[in-house]
Amino acid sequence: MIFLLKSLFSNVSSLSNDEKVFLLTSFAILLPYYICGPVIVIATIYLTIRHWKDLISEISQLRYLLIFVIYAIAVALYYRNYLGILLPLAFGIFGLFFLIYKQLVTARLYRWNLKIFTWGSILLAFYAFGHYVNQVLRAGYDLMYIFKYQNLQTRAQATVFNPNYYGLLIAMVLVMAIYLIFKSRKPYERILSYIAIFMNLIALILTGSRWSIPTAFLGVVMMVLALKPKLAWALAVASVGLLVGLVLKPSLLPRFTNLAYGFADRYGIWLAGWKLFETSPLIGRGSMTFVKFYYLVSDQAKMHAHQILVDSLANYGIFGMMLLILFLSPFFRWLVFQLKEWRLTPELGLIISLIGVCLFHGLMDVSIIWVQMGYMLLCSVVVSDETLREIQTS
Known about the structure:
The chain has helices at 2-10, 17-28, 33-50, 52-58, 63-78, 86-104, 107-138, 145-148, 163-183, 187-207, 212-227, 229-248, 259-279, 289-293, 308-342, 346-361, 371-381, 385-393. By secondary structure, the protein is an all-alpha fold. Helix 9 (163-183) packs antiparallel against helix 16 (346-361) and helix 11 runs antiparallel to helix 16 (346-361).
């Protein structure tokens, strides 16, 4: 982190005001949501005022997102789901922020964001480890607590909302670290990325997040496949070996001995989420449907349906999902075009790996909707054609 700050401050005079705002926001993402959230809002207001003329000509790119935001707020108000107003507003703010980001991002800014997320995660891992050690020792346990007990009261989450969300952040950071190792030209940068991998693997274990571990392995294999295909196959074989080892001895990793119970619990939550969807299949009931209306179908209160598709259907219904598909389809068409044009470059491998990680994790959770992981993903995948060429050739 010292190297990161030293290198950044040595070049601060060459940074534009916009780059400084984006980098400050990226640093803030490493802090809790009640800090980074307001920072994003303030940055969005500043950038919108500063670039409002350019926004007028580009805002059509967000037309389906803006329709979705109005739609989701209207549905939430109709069902008196006032908590459900917040998430669509957040989608709108992110849309504006990253529309401006796409116009202004350079190869230098793109790489700095990856370095901030990757090397900054070292501090998060140290914090998570220190917090874990303090909590288990104060409670009278030893450091192997997370391996010995299944109903854990202490799991690593660093500055993120909960351990499962932190597990997704770690999986994303591991992908970024591998990319930086491949692209870095300075030895100390590679060393920092290796340290980030080591510390985040420890933190990943301490999260006790069962689905985050295979998610991280998938991300690593996908990223390595884009860089060193032969090595990726070796990692895939090693992953299968680990899976066999876990079947034979589940206690190798935290909370894997009660994996069957975990899946049964998730299935019950998915079923409740689907029943909520069936109560209003066309329009949903607004964001946060599960926490607001769970009592209609279940006596188990949860924040969400623990599955990105089921939760989205319950929240927004078929009409809302159609609007989201219309909004996202240009990006995926662009991605397919880039693959046909350039094949699997390291940068496209990074983008696809991060999307794959988030979608795979979304089979068991909705962590990607959280502010920190959403920001990290969008910073890594929202780039213009010109910037992508610049990154690939630099």
